[in-house]
Every structure is written in C-alpha cells, then in structure tokens.
Design goal:
32% of the residues lie in helices and 19% in strands. The chain has 21 helices and 23 strands. Strand 19 and strand 20 form a beta hairpin. It is globular. 54% of the residues are buried.
Length: 608
C-alpha cells in the first residue's frame, strides 16, 4: 500500500485513554490506514519524522464564537496552529442561522466583545441562508481549516420567530404557534446532525447596537417552561443542552441538575454548563459545584459536564471595556455608552462615582470579579511611569479611593490604558482538582471572542504541559494518555461526533506535539492583527515550538514553516461534523465559492 503521509517513529496516543505505543502512522486518502512498528518510508509521498514526539488526535475546542470570523477567514489559523482540528460554534445561545444579519450582529457583538461593524459586514456579505440545512451546506463548502460542529442558538432562534423587540420584552411570551415554530426548527436541525441547543440565563450578557441596547440576550427572557419544552426534545433525541446558569446568583444551577437527572424513570438530559472555575471572589464555590454534580450524576442519573479552561483565568482590558463590569449597575452604565466623551462625562459625575464605590466596596453578595484594584496591574499607558503598577498602589500614593484613581486614569487615557488581572484558577492545586474531575470537560476557550481580553486558544498545550511537569516533579496529575483523552476522544464521544480518535480507519485529524516545546512560552503574551476585522489586534498566546505538524483530513496544513499555500482560501480541509454520523475526509480540491440554496422565508413568516 502506498501512503500519502507517514508519521515516523512517534509515541502514538489513540485518544481513547489507552497507553501509547512507539509506532509509525500511515495515512491514505484522508484516513489512518496503518499503525505499525515500522512502515517503509519509500512508500509515502511525505514523511514526517516524529521521533521523540507525541502523535495524537487533533484537539477539540468545544466552546468557541468563531461564527462570524469563520465566514471571512475559514482557516481559523489561531486555533489550528496549536493543534486544534475541530471547533464548536453556536455557543451561548448565539448562532447566525435564523435571524437577520443586523439582529445577529446586535446579539453577538457586545457580549462577545467583537467589532460589530465587521460582524455585521460579514453577515450582510455572506448570509443567504435562513435554515440549518442551507447554513450547513454553506459552511461545508467554505475552504475550512478545521472541522466544524455547531449548536443551534436559542437567542438566534427566538429573535427570528418573535422579533428582537418582543424577544427581549419580559412581559412577552411566545405564542403557541411561535413555540411550535421554534421546536420544529430545532427538530430539523437535530435531524441534520446539529449537536443540540445552546441557551443562556446569565443576565450579564447584553445586546449591542442601538435598537434595544443593553437589554440581556433574548434567551434570558425565556421562562423555565419554555426551556423545558426544548429540554424534552433534546432528552428524547439524546441531543445536548449547552447553557449557563446565572453566573451572578448561581441559584438556578440546581434547576439544571434536576432537569438533567433521570430519577430512574426517564432519559437523562445531556447538559454541558458554563463554567466551573476557582474564582478569587468565591474560593469555596468550585468544590461545592463539583460535589453536587457528582451526587446528581452518580445517584440520580444526571449527565452534567462543566466546562473549564485549564489555565489561570487572566483577563486584559483597554480602559473599562471588560465584560466583568456588566455584573453591577455602575459598570453596566459605563458599557452602555459607546463614545469616550460620553463615558468621561459619566465618570466625572460625583453621584456616579458614589454608586461605583458603593458597589465596589460591597464585600458580600454574588459576583465573579474580585473587585480588588490592588490586584489589577497596568500593562501600558501613555504615561510610562504607570506600567507595572496596580491601580491600588497608585491610589495609595495619591491618597485616593482606588475607584477614583481607576476612573481618573480611564478618563485620562481611555482605551490606551491597558491592564490585566486574574479572576480565577490562580491556585494550581485547586486547578488540578478541577481538571481531574470526571464531571469536567477541559476546554472553555471562548476562541474567536473577547479578542482584546482573553487568549486561551492553546489551552490543550497548556494542559499537556501541566501534566508533563507534574510527572517530572514526581507529583503526577494524571497519566499522559488520560490527559490526551481529555482534550480529544472524551469530548468527541460525549458530543457524539466523529472526532478525537487515532485508530486505523479513523479520519486522519492529527497533531504531532514536540514535548520539549511545552515550555513557559505556553503562557507568553502576544498580539496578532486580525486582517478580516480591520487589523484589530487579537490577544494570543503562542508557543509554536510545541507543534511539529497539524493534519486535517489527512493533509498536512501546518508546520513550523507555517501554513501550506492556499490554506483557508484556495483549499479546504475540514468538514461540518454531524452528530451521530461518520464524516468522510474532504477530497483534496481547489475550493469554489459556496453555492447557496435559495433563501427560504424567515421563521417569523412561517408562524401562522
């Protein structure tokens, strides 16, 4: 047999959690066709020397917001360069399938901290679909880099049926016909192989644009009765609910546990929730969440998984543009305004400052941000003497309240005041407990969102480095094969998609990891422009020494020399993965522009 590619002499992990073996991997026509002690390199068109390196399935990123970027730059290089070969979109109730481009841009851009003009432009340029089938066809025809899987977004669905104004009116509930229309659309999507439905109950998440600006996302206005109608469909069909409890109060997390439980008389509702983390604001919470979830999963038949980013939850901000300020009134007032001159007028108001200080000083009550400006350090500012200092230190020197110093500096420097803080996962021993827990899914990268605030694109490499270092220190965290399983096959199996395995017959989505490259660079801060978003600089972490090669559908797409010619433009590699279906590798070919299906009437027009 001839091979397109042989990966030679690597330590091969199959993604099932089984121990690795030294072997050669042969790939033909997009599939793994041999894993043997030795293959003849003369039989291959391309040989990659993997001696001393780890060969494993490509990583799965199960929580992204690439929906808009995907239309403009379908290679998604920031993920693929780190070995990610499958990404999930349609998260947090946000998809771009049903609603109009303007509605999608408004519900998407503020909560995910994306430039609205470019999100809207991408949708206006490309969106010719109004239903899951046409959307799937369009995405599958793009020159994809990684594979793509998707949830249906409840906010997208609700807006398309009820209209943006009504879908965000707390007194307005869907009529029977509207509810039936939404349920029919969900069933159609599940028939096609979408993963399930993503919802949102966290009131932080606000709408942008100027029509209903600052209202919470449409999904948050649904009653539990409305949610339950969707849950029944998902439960019956074995599909998945992705959702977020109210992050501020957290009380409704119990409802999700109860809803997922089978109690021995019904099917469990497969549920993945956002998110578990060791927050500075509530150091006891993560342990309580995991204990409760274990009880429900083990004794009441629930099937809950909490998503977790396996690294310190460090965030950056330009001025006051950071989502954590949405959790209290004064911060929300500031983010409602879009112009710096308007914000400065607000910050100068004495009554506003009193409100801000009162909410900042409140020591008890639900929160995520630790609200400690002594634990918030300035990275850069037009005044270089500020760099490296905390707002609290500057305030102490000035004899001021930290809030007054913070607001004064934001007024003076605007978005040129860049600063950072860590809000969670700061205690290594607690993070180890979380990422080892059986009810946790490793991965909450939010890739493609919060592009100036967060950078977790390389989370699988950071996770593997943590496991490797723990073993080298004589305090093993988990076997390496278990770690590989956590970021590959475990996620694919739970989601029900054909991804995350490296066995003979599997589609050849593969990454070759150089373990000597798993160094401190995994946490090194970088910025890189996003050309399709007007050059806005994306916060990233890059440790390119760790990846020797990324293969998608059996084709080498990335090496330390860079991406192959035509990547993300002339040639496509990934596929739209359907839940419950095997997916054939993409036949190598030059990509032609997607042929869009005729546009169907929007859902709202189908409501009788």
């Amino acid at each position: 047999m001839r091979y397109d590619v042989i990966l030679r002499s690597g330590l091969v992990f199959d993604g099932t959690g089984a121990p690795p073996r030294l072997a050669d991997v042969g790939i033909t026509a997009g599939r793994v066709t041999a894993i043997e002690d030795q293959l003849d390199p003369a039989l291959a068109d391309q040989v990659i020397d993997a001696e001393g390196q780890w060969v494993m399935p490509g990583f799965l990123d199960a929580h992204t917001h690439y929906d808009a970027e995907l239309l403009l730059a379908p290679g998604l290089p920031e993920s693929v360069r780190h070995g990610v070969t499958t990404v999930c979109i349609g998260s947090c109730s946000l998809s771009t399938i049903f609603a109009t481009p303007e509605d999608c841009a408004d519900i998407f851009s503020r909560v995910e901290a994306l430039p609205r003009d470019y999100v809207l432009g991408a949708l206006e340029q490309h969106k010719t679909w109004n239903d899951p089938a046409a959307y799937m066809a369009h995405v599958d025809a793009l020159p994809l880099g990684p594979n793509v899987m998707s949830f249906i977004g409840h906010s997208d669905l609700r807006v398309s049926v009820m209209g943006l104004e009504d879908a965000t009116d707390e007194k307005r509930k869907p009529t029977a016909d509207e509810q039936a229309c939404m349920e029919a659309a969900l069933n159609d999507a599940l028939d096609l192989g979408f993963l399930g439905l993503s919802c949102m109950t966290n009131p932080w998440d606000k709408i942008g644009g100027d029509r209903v600006r600052s209202r919470p996302l449409p999904s948050t206005f649904a009653s539990w009765k409305e949610y339950r109608r969707f849950h029944d469909i998902l439960r019956e069909r074995g599909a998945i609910l992705q959702s977020a409890p109210n992050i501020t109060t957290k009380y409704n997390a119990l409802l999700y546990l109860l809803e997922s439980a089978s109690f021995g008389v019904r099917k469990p509702l497969k549920t993945t929730l956002i998110t578990v983390a060791d927050t500075k604001s509530n150091p006891m919470l993560s342990s309580a969440i995991l204990r409760g979830t274990t009880t429900f999963n083990d004794t009441l038949g629930a099937d809950i998984r909490w998503q977790c980013v396996p690294m310190p939850f460090e965030v950056y901000a330009d001025g006051i543009d950071l989502v954590v300020f949405e959790e209290f009134g004064a911060g929300e007032e500031a983010l409602h305004l879009t112009e710096q001159v308007e914000r400065n007028a607000l910050f100068a108001d004495k009554a506003y400052r009193r409100r801000f200080r009162k909410e900042y000083d409140k020591r008890f009550g639900p929160r995520v941000w630790h609200r400690d400006l002594h634990d918030a350090h300035i990275v850069s500012a037009p005044d270089p003497t500020l760099a490296g200092r905390s707002f609290g230190d500057v305030a102490d020197e000035r004899g001021e309240h930290p809030v007054d110093t913070f607001l004064d500096l934001v007024m003076e420097h605007g978005t040129q005041l860049r600063w950072r803080t860590t809000i969670a996962n700061h205690r290594p021993e607690k993070l180890d407990q979380i990422v080892s827990h059986p009810t946790v899914q490793v991965g909450f990268a939010d890739s493609g969102a919060h592009i100036r605030n967060m950078a977790f694109y390389n989370f699988p490499l950071y996770f593997l480095r943590s496991v490797k270092r723990a073993a080298e220190a004589g305090t093993p965290l988990m076997p390496l094969e278990r770690a590989v399983h956590r970021v590959t096959g475990e996620i694919g199996e739970w989601l029900g998609v054909d991804a995350g395995r490296l066995r003979v017959g599997d589609r050849a989505d593969v990454v070759v990891v150089n373990p000597t490259g798993l160094n401190d660079d995994v946490h090194a801060y970088h910025e890189a422009p996003i050309d399709v978003f007007g050059g806005v600089r994306r916060m990233v972490r890059r440790n390119d020494d760790a990846i020797t090669a990324t293969l998608v559908g059996g084709q080498v797409v990335y090496t330390p020399a860079g991406f192959v010619d035509g990547y993300g433009s002339a040639h496509g590699y990934g596929r739209f993965l359907r839940r419950g279906h095997d997916t054939a590798p993409r036949v190598p070919s030059t990509v032609t522009a997607p042929t869009d299906a005729p546009v169907e009437a929007p859902l709202a027009a189908q409501v009788s």
